[in-house]
Amino acid sequence: MSRDLIAELKTKNMKTITRRKFVKDSLQAAAVVAVAAPFATAGESVPALQFSQIALPYPYAALEPNIDALTMEIHYTKHHAAYVKNVNDAIAAEKITFENEKDLFSNASKLSAKARNNAGGAWNHNFFWQVMKASGGGAPTGKIADAINGSFGSFEKFKEEFTKAAMTRFGSGWAWLVQHDGKLKIGSTPNQDNPMMDSAELKGTPLLGLDVWEHAYYLKYQNKRNEYVANWWNTLNWEEAAKRLS
Ligand code: MN
């Protein structure tokens, strides 16, 4: 290697280090601003509610062939990540001071569209990832099976009704199984709304949720939402649903 080339490489390396240090310092400064500025009013510091993405409980390919790995990867790293970033931006910009997610959702009607849509998107996807698993599905057992049979007559009737909710949601939204006043109910919400929002027609504690946005299935299923919904039953994590039943 020529002496000139070595000198040039050394200079390049220095520049990289300097740039890295600059980025690191800037990020640290930004982090301080993000925490301190929007919530410090009249010398009072209010802890900021922050949404975050759960670690995906399984690899991207775990739900194959029902949900393909590429859809999972884009859905988690692009769509879900964007909802989380955007809701946290909205919380900061709009000085939203709810203490927890539940309080925020029960005041959803007072939020901006940006805060409400992205808060829903952040929470709904964290929930969605958890109620699925590799080699899931089958019929539920135990107390959730009893609750389903009690409310809908049979597992088959429940599946029929849930599938109808998923198929008749026009455009983007979610189908849900919820518990409300001791009863199980099926319904759907538009966009990224969820049944914990005061503004939602369907109300209750979510036990199961199915994302019927095209981004959830289009790569593999194109326009065939019915096939996506039919195969989604094979991914269900009934233990997670049962945990949420009271
Ligand atoms: Mn989605």
Question: Which descriptors would you attach to this protein?
Answer:
two-stranded antiparallel ribbon, three-stranded antiparallel sheet, 5 strands, minor pseudopilin epsh fold, mainly alpha, single chain, 246 residues, binds manganese (II) ion
- State the CATH superfamily name: Iron/manganese superoxide dismutase, C-terminal domain
Q: Uncertain runs with pLDDT below 50, 5 residues or more?
A: 13-40
> Shape from CA axes?
globular
For the biggest β-sheet, the strand order reads: 4-3-5
Strand content: 5-15%
CATH architecture: 3-Layer(bab) Sandwich
Structural class: mainly alpha
CATH top level is Alpha Beta
Termini separation: 71 Å
User: Could you give the order of the helices and strands?
Assistant: HEEHHHHHEEEHHH
Average residue pLDDT: 88
Instruction: Indicate the radius of gyration in whole angstroms.
Output: 22 Å
Biggest pleated-sheet summary: 3 strands, antiparallel
Overall tally of domains: 1
What name is given to the CATH topology? minor pseudopilin epsh fold
The count of β-strands is 5
Bound molecules: manganese (II) ion
Quick description:
With 246 residues, the protein is mostly helical. The protein has nine helices and five strands; from the N terminus they run H-E-E-H-H-H-H-H-E-E-E-H-H-H.
Could you characterize the architecture of this molecule?
The protein is mainly α and 246 residues long. The protein has one domain (68-246): minor pseudopilin epsh fold. The protein has helices at residues 3-36, 69-93, 101-106, 113-130, 142-152, 155-168, 218-221, 225-232, 238-243, and strands at 40-41, 44-45, 173-180, 183-190, 205-211. The strands form two sheets. It has a three-stranded antiparallel β-sheet with strand order 4-3-5, with helices on both faces. It has a two-stranded antiparallel sheet with strand order 1-2. The chain is globular and about 45 Å long. The protein starts with a helix and ends with a helix. The relative contact order is 0.12. Mean pLDDT is 88; it is low at 13-40. Bound molecules: manganese (II) ion. Residues 75, 79, 125, 211, 213, 215-216 line the site of manganese (II) ion. Residues 75, 79, 125, 211, 213, 215-216 line the site of manganese (II) ion (MN).
